[in-house]
């Protein structure tokens, strides 16, 4: 089962969709042009080996500027953030923001 899709749109009408993927359990995204054609393959945002969580959920998405976005999600015990370029390339490693039980807001 896939779920929790979130969308953010750039000024030129291109957009990104991020959602949680059931198998394997991860947060993924895909970028599209202004008419809805994919401009990237589906790419993983979460890093299961580094974060060692058994589930991921509740993705959030925000544009930092017209070339960068950030996606966040909840893992088994923590909340994570990953910055990416508008074409889905990760900028640095994901960041642990805090534990999932305190539910910080983005």
Give structural notes:
This protein is mainly β and 106 residues long. It has one helix at 48-51, and strands spanning 3-9, 15-21, 26-32, 43-44, 57-65, 68-74, 78-85, 95-99. A four-stranded antiparallel β-sheet has the order 1-2-3-4, with no helix packed on it. A four-stranded antiparallel β-sheet has the order 5-6-7-8, with no helix packed on it. The longest helix is centred in the middle third of the chain and has 4 residues, at 48-51. The radius of gyration is 13 Å and the shape is globular.
Average pLDDT level: 85
Report the principal-axis shape: globular
- The secondary-structure element order is EEEEHEEEE
The largest sheet, given as strand count, sense and whether it forms a barrel, is: 4 strands, antiparallel
Number of beta-strand segments: 8
Rg estimate, integer Å: 13 Å
Helix content: under 10%
**Poorly predicted ranges:** none
């Amino acid at each position: 089962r896939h779920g929790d899709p979130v969308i953010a749109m750039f000024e030129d009408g291109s957009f990104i969709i991020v959602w949680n993927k059931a198998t394997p359990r991860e947060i993924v995204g895909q970028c599209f042009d202004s008419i809805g054609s994919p401009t990237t393959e589906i790419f993983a945002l979460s890093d299961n080996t580094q974060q060692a969580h058994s589930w991921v959920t509740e993705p959030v998405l925000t544009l930092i500027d017209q070339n960068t976005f950030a996606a966040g999600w909840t893992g088994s015990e923590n909340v994570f953030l990953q910055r990416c370029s508008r074409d889905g390339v990760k900028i640095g490693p994901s960041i642990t923001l805090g534990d999932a039980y305190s539910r910080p807001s983005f």
